[in-house]
Amino acid sequence: MVILVALILSILLQIGASILSLGLIKRTKYNVSWILISIGFTLMAVRRVYVFVYILHTDGGLESQSITDNWLSVVISLVIFVGVIYIRKIFDLQERIDRIRKDNESRVFAAIIKTEEQERKTFAKELHDGLGPILSSIKMGLSAINQAEQQEQNKQILSKTNFAIDEAIITIKEISNRLSPHILTNFGLEKAVRNFINTISYAQITIDFKSEIGKERYDFTIETVLYRVICELLANTIQHADAEKVSVLIQKEQEHIVVSYTDNGNGFEMQQEKTRGMGLSNIYSRIQSIHGGIEIETSPGSGFKTFIRVPISSK
């Protein structure tokens, strides 16, 4: 009876260790060494079951078993079982460390984005409020000159100078707005994206923009990141894709903002793009900083599609 109890205990412990080890295979990202260890634990459990069944169906089999041998098997099985439990705790600890690391990276990147946007805003304000009035003053001074008393050549010079100053003032306003779009700050993501599209529209490319979020406002970092990402996607399409049509859709699905972006351009090889530059890497980093997810589908000659999903909190 004692031997039978020892056999049953060892079988249960071996099966438990096997189940625990098999359950950890996915968490080890299908590491070959752990798969082999799990197979070993499983085979040991199968062996103990086989021995148990053999003893029950063999006359005198139970009496022929050594008590010491069977209780030693129980101890070995117990050690293996406890060892697997502690290994599982190590995996749990590693996952917590990874989550903390990712959260810290997201917070650091979010802080960088806020700092970057603040610097953009400061620089844009300096351009608009500093250099803009100076150019306007120069224009007013030139307009005060009596052109009736000027020679024709001087009149042309003044006219060209006025035109150049007007262009400089417009350019400063455009640069200021792109650095820190006041529309994004004052009116939200939809109007800011629509305004950006209007400023970059070309006859050779059609941009179809649709939004279902209306005037709803969201966290500053979320709006800023999505705005910058959409702008970067559009700039990449215009510069590199040789596309004729672009589609941008912004939706709200429960507690998420979803951005769908497609173009019918050249497309590219994803692996080559990852090793070539910072374009996609920058987009991935920005989306990850706000705990969002991004999926990209593209290949040479098949255009470009991306799907962005970001958890939101309304302002």
Compact overview of the structure:
This protein is an alpha+beta fold. Helix content is 67%, strand content 12%.
Question: How would you describe this structure in keywords?
Answer:
alpha+beta; five-stranded mixed β-sheet; Heat Shock Protein 90; elongated; 315 residues; 3 domains; 9 helices
How does the SSE layout of this entry go?
Layout: H1 2-23, H2 32-56, H3 67-143, H4 152-179, H5 182-187, H6 189-200, E1 206-211, H7 220-241, E2 245-253, E3 256-263, H8 270-276, H9 279-289, E4 293-298, E5 304-311
Parallel strand pairs: 1-2
Antiparallel strand pairs: 2-3, 3-5, 4-5
Helix pairs in contact: 1-2, 1-3, 3-4, 3-9, 6-7, 7-9
Can you walk through the features of this model?
This protein has 315 residues and is an alpha+beta fold. The protein has 3 domains: 107 residues; 64 residues; 130 residues, Heat Shock Protein 90, CATH 3.30.565.10. Helices cover 67% and strands 12% of the residues. It contains 9 helices and 5 strands; from the N terminus they run ααααααβαββααββ. A 5-stranded mixed beta sheet has the order 1-2-3-5-4, with helices on one face. Strand 2 and strand 3 form a beta hairpin. The radius of gyration is 34 Å and the shape is elongated. The mean pLDDT is 78.
